[in-house]
Specification:
heterodimer; A: about 110 residues; mainly beta; seven-stranded mixed β-sheet; four-stranded antiparallel β-sheet; 11 strands; about 45% strand; globular; B: about 110 residues; six-stranded mixed β-sheet; five-stranded antiparallel β-sheet; about 0% helix
Chain lengths: ~110, ~110
């Protein structure tokens, strides 16, 4: 089934540990995004990539890094996790950065930092 | 600054009609999106408006007024499965989406 796969589904992580959230899409979409979703707040963009080999910072990039070595994969790394990074993380993709047909979202990773 | 406002929660009755409003302020404007998100699931795309007016898609319709910075999502013949959060998002001049916090819609029998 075409779409976006995120892993893990959920994780409890000790503060200070490093973690990579995985995101893979099979739709050959050019643009990919990482969002976090917290109760009472809208989705907030962490990092994005308009095409393979390029990345950009979103609204809340501090403490996170990304890479886009190829079209399909867009991993998000927390270098040293802190409790404020407890959230639900969604990866999304679109055909282009100006896509008007909406984003496709992965099923999310629920991360708890303790 | 950029901002999206929508009600936090609404309640409606099965079979009825409900209108979810959204106002936006963005630096430039390249369209307005509505997404549906069931609890514990990913958002799914419902509609996109860039021109003024009403777009109808089955039981769901979306309206945009660019001069007023206003949109609404209209849901007709409500079903229990429509219980979800509805997210409004505006695309700014840089083609970035600015998201509202979502409106939780509760459907009662």
């Amino acid at each position: 089934i075409a779409g976006i796969t995120q892993a893990p589904t959920s994780q409890i992580l000790a503060a200070g540990r490093r973690m990579t959230l995985r995101c893979t899409q099979d739709m050959r979409h050019n643009a990919m995004y990482w969002y976090r979703q917290d109760l009472g707040l809208g989705l907030r963009l962490i990092h994005y990539s308009n095409t393979a080999g390029t990345t950009g910072k979103g609204e809340v990039p501090d403490g996170y890094s990304v890479s886009r070595a190829n079209t399909d994969d867009f991993p998000l790394t927390l270098a040293s996790a802190v409790p404020s990074q407890t959230s639900v993380y969604f990866c999304a993709s679109s055909e282009g950065d100006r896509n008007t047909e909406g984003y496709t979202f992965g099923s999310g990773t629920r991360l708890t930092v303790v | 600054g950029q901002n999206i406002d929508q009600p936090t929660e609404m309640t409606a009755t099965e079979g009825a009609i409900v209108q979810i409003n959204c106002t936006y302020q963005t630096s430039g404007f390249n369209g307005l999106f509505w997404y549906q998100q069931h609890a514990g699931e990913a958002p799914t795309f419902l509609s996109y408006n860039v021109l003024d007016g009403l777009e109808e898609k089955g039981r769901f319709s979306s309206f945009l007024s660019r001069s007023k910075g206003y949109s609404y999502l209209l849901l007709k013949e409500l079903q229990m499965k429509d219980s979800a959060s509805y997210l409004c998002a505006a695309m700014d001049s840089n083609y970035q989406l600015i998201w509202g916090a979502g409106t939780k819609l509760i459907i009662k029998p």
